[in-house]
Amino acid sequence: MPTDSDKIELSEHELREIAGYAAECARRTLAIFEQSLPADSRPRDAVDAAQAFAAGGRRTAALRQDAWAAYGAAREAVPPAAADAARAASHAAAAAYLHPKASAHQVKHILGAAAHASRAEELASGADPRVTAGTLDWACRHAPPAVGAVLGRLPPAPSGGGRVGELLRVLDAALRA
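Given the sequence above, the corresponding structure tokens read:
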């Protein structure tokens, strides 16, 4: 089992696949955010920036700023589902900054967008367990090989984090299986 001080192998291809996956997960919930704040493009900008990186773009300061801007949108969103949708977008852009370090925290960079998107869809559905199960299943089926490969080099997802943390651990366990 790797420890937090260990370095891991992380190729640029894997990093791009992970960012693309995170962007796909977050994109599923943009409408949830935009129903509440249709004029606020920060989450969509973050998802688009993550997708551009995944497609071969550069990892720039603008990408990091888009991640922080989506995080700011999440803090300003009133409905909890909209806030989690914006957090998913923030995590999508931040996925490009995954570090080659065997830290449980890095699992959040890989799966944070999927976990927050799952929570956004769960909240938007009125906590319908079928929606939650369907969202988690979608996230597992659409994960590219790099997601499972890199997760296998990291310690398991950390404890805590409330409901999003639970969803993160469910995804982590499923994608390692």
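The two ends are 15 Å apart (CA to CA). Try to locate this feature in the token string yourself.
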